[in-house]
## 1
Amino acid sequence: QVRLVESGGGLVQSGGSLRLSCAASGLTFSIYAMGWFRQAPGKEREFVAGMNWSGERTNYADSVKGRFTISRDSAKNTVYLQMNSLKSEDTAVYSCARAASRYSGVTTRDYEYEYWGQGTQVTVSS
């Protein structure tokens, strides 16, 4: 059974930090790019951060550059999103996703991701 399970969301004050985790099971992890997306109420899903299959390249949305860091531990089949200096506009449901193509580079396009987690809520209070 293919599963991507996010954890680590919650309520945090503005300026605080959270670390999201995404544990993968039932699918190959190490040779695929991984990404984080978010969706706020009434808004479209947007790309947040991504990492290529080897972990050597990353890409971030302009709105989170310098504050968020994506990383992966292929031995644990887990990808992380460290979020610092959180702002109220970061409030959203955050989902991780695995790319559809093997040995893939970083992509910001959600249709290039094949498997998705159910999401974890992040709420930043001002």
## 2
Amino acid sequence: QVQLVESGGGLVQTGGSLRLSCAAPGRTLSAYAMGWFRQGPGEEREFVAGLSKSGLTTYYPDSVKGRFTISRDNAKNTVYLQMNSRKPEDTAVYYCAAGPRGCSAYGCYASKSKYDYWGQGTQVTVSS
């Protein structure tokens, strides 16, 4: 079992930036491909970023491409989601997830069912 812990959520104004972190105490995140998802009020959980195990390949939906960046720091055993140019519609609970095996394309990383482990989520609110 891998416990994922998100942090860095909060309130940010439209156009502002925020960086979320995802850690796994006692586990090595570099062994996993990773993803970030979000779920707004009354909405389905949606994919916002994916990162290959090597850290060399990233995946984003059009809604966040150019604004969000997923990365990992293996020395700190942490995965990040840098979010710039925030919009009110980015308001959601953000979740990190680990473990999509055998993924090499966007569709695989974007599929919730491919992930083995999930964090509890961190709330991000963008004020207009």
